[in-house]
Structure formats: structure tokens, C-alpha cells
Design brief:
mainly alpha
Length: 156
């Protein structure tokens, strides 16, 4: 059993992992078939898939380009024009949102969350997360827990 398999087996069962992989593959197939949706919306969904499947290993633009069957530079320019942000910035925002979702699970450590989100280290995740949210992951988690308990104060 390699390191990746050991890590996954600690978090989810093999059956759950297989089910997640199947769902991701189905979603990727759906994206390729969506004809009614704008291309920018398809790019956004492809970016979300990329964030939730960090083990793919391909660079972001190559991943999106391959998935949608379009030239990467064309998609990049179109997305920036229609959405007002780059595909990379969209990915960073999506990663932060995914990390927030995972932080709701108190059983996951920040290290676990960083790995699931595809970050190379906790420090890398913390820096990018703080750039987007103005809080470190630990500060954000603490604030959210305080809100849930009703023990937060708003600074004037």
C-alpha cells in the first residue's frame, strides 16, 4: 500500500473512495456534454472539479482545456472577459471555499484539509487562504465555531 492509499484509507473506506471517484468522473462527463450552458460557466464547473480532484496532477489550464475540448488560451481570455477574473484566481477562490466546507468537519485537521485541497503544505494553504479571506484557516475555523455557539462579537 503506497502513502496515498494509506492516507485515503485513514479518512474514508475504499468503498467510499471508489464512490467519490465515480461521482467525479460522472460530473466530468456531464460538463463535456453541457451545450446549453455558457462556456464560462462550464469553465467554472471544470475548475471546481479540478479543486475537488487534486490528484489529477495536470496544470489547471491543461485540465480545463482537455475537459472542455477547447484551446486553453482561448478559454483563459474568454473567462477573464466574461467573469472579470482569471481562471487561476477562480481556482484559488474555489479552493478557499472547499477548504471552508471541509473545516466544518471537526474531525479533519488543517493538515488533512490542505492535502484534500491539493496544497503542497499547510503554510501554502494558510498564505493563499489568508489572501482571500483575511484570516488564516485556524482563525476562520475558530470564528465559525464561535458563531455557531453564539459567542462572537462584532467590532465597531
Amino acid at each position: 500500500m503506497n502513502e496515498k492509499e494509506r492516507y485515503v484509507s485513514c479518512i474514508v473506506s475504499q468503498e467510499e473512495a471508489d464512490e467519490m471517484i465515480l461521482l467525479i468522473r460522472r460530473r466530468k462527463t456531464e460538463i463535456g456534454r453541457e451545450k446549453d450552458s455558457s462556456l464560462a460557466a462550464q469553465v467554472r464547473r471544470a475548475v471546481l472539479d479540478y479543486v475537488r480532484d487534486p490528484e489529477d496532477g495536470r496544470p489547471l489550464l491543461e485540465y480545463v482545456s482537455d475537459l472542455l475540448g477547447r484551446d486553453g488560451q482561448y478559454l483563459s481570455n474568454l473567462f477573464k472577459e466574461e467573469e472579470g477574473v482569471t481562471i487561476r484566481d477562480c481556482m484559488l477562490e474555489q479552493r478557499a471555499e472547499y477548504a471552508k466546507d471541509l473545516m466544518a468537519d471537526e474531525g479533519l485537521t488543517i493538515t488533512d484539509i490542505a492535502r484534500r485541497c491539493g496544497y503542497s503544505s499547510v503554510a501554502h494553504m494558510s498564505n493563499q487562504f489568508k489572501a482571500i479571506t483575511a484570516l488564516t484557516p485556524t482563525e476562520w475555523r475558530r470564528l465559525e465555531r464561535s458563531k455557531e455557539k453564539g459567542n462572537f462579537a462584532v467590532n465597531d
